[in-house]
Amino acid sequence: MPLRPIAGAVRTIIALLLPPRCPGCGEPVGADHRFCATCWTELRFLAPPWCAGCHLPFDYDRGPEARCATCLARPPRHAGIRAAVAYGPVAGALAVRLKHGGQIALAETMARAMARLMPEGAELLVSVPLHRWRLWRRGFNQSALIAAALARRTGVRHDPFVLRRWRATRLLRGLGRRERARTVRGVFAVRAVDRERLRGRAVVLVDDVYTTGATAEGCVRALLAAGARSVTILCWARVLASDD
Questions:
Q1: Burial class (CB in 10 A: 0-12, 13-18, 19+), 51
Q2: CA–CA gap between residue 193 and residue 202 (Å, rounded)
Q3: Residue 82's CB: how many other CB atoms inside 10 A?
Q4: Which of 33, 38, 159, 169 is the one with CA 20 to 30 A from 16?
């Protein structure tokens, strides 16, 4: 018997027994990775107009080269922070369920929203690394899962091993900006034998949530020191100044 009709029938039965559900609330939806109308309206998708330096959203268009006060006072090392959505109840719930709930399929959901922001000319995806002890305890690196999903969707190569976290640190949750920066100082590095994979490349650093930027800045510093031509930060959600 032809296998295609049988496979189609199996998929239909599975869809009836286990219908696709909204990543935000679990309500049945039309297809995998799609949000229900309520959760969709609660997501704030980020796009221009924004700061030319860090992609902080502006309330109105100030021109293509306009920069926020922070970037004018201290130009960033990175080539921009691109986030699919602003951090909020739905966006945060997805990040928590992926990172701490082990719902690894959510990495694909996030990557689908992030793919539209992939920088033109990107050559290499690098995920924010975990220390090996935390990786062994958790069983996966959520940033690497998102980067792998992005690589499948965009065709940009993902290297999960070029950037390493040499020292374990305490959890950053609840720490202020300066304390976070002190905690991750000198934590990230690229081995000399791995530097050729970075030399002269336009790198995209992938993470789940951009909060104060301490972790991302540590990664950017290490990647540029190892020879990357540029580093753009690409994440699922970004905590904005007005967010709690």
A1: buried
A2: 19
A3: 22
A4: 38
Burial (CB count within 10 angstroms: exposed 0-12, middle 13-18, buried 19+), residue 83? buried
The 10s digit of each residue's pLDDT in 16-51 is 557 899 999 999 998 999 999 999 999 999 999 999
In DSSP notation, the chain reads --HHHHHHHHHHHHHHHS--B-TTT--B-SSTTPPPHHHHHH--B--SSB-TTT-PBPSS---TT---HHHHHS--SSS-EEEEEE--HHHHHHHHHHHTT--TTHHHHHHHHHGGGPPTT--EEEEPPPPHHHHHHHSS-HHHHHHHHHHHHH---B-SSSSEE-S-----TT--HHHHHHHHTT-EE--GGGGGGTTT-EEEEEEEEESSSHHHHHHHHHHHHTT-SEEEEEEEEE--TT--
Q: Which two tokens stand for residue 220?
A: 């950017």
Residues 130 and 208: their CA atoms lie apart, in Å, by: 13
**C-alpha pair distances (Å), 205 with each of 23, 29, 61, 210, 217:** 24, 32, 27, 11, 10
Q: How far apart are CA 191 and CA 163, in angstroms?
A: 8
Q: How many CB atoms lie within 10 A of CB 197?
A: 18
Q: Which residues contact 214 (CB under 8 A, 6 or more apart)?
A: 172, 177, 180, 181, 183, 184
Residue 158 tokens, joined: 């993902």
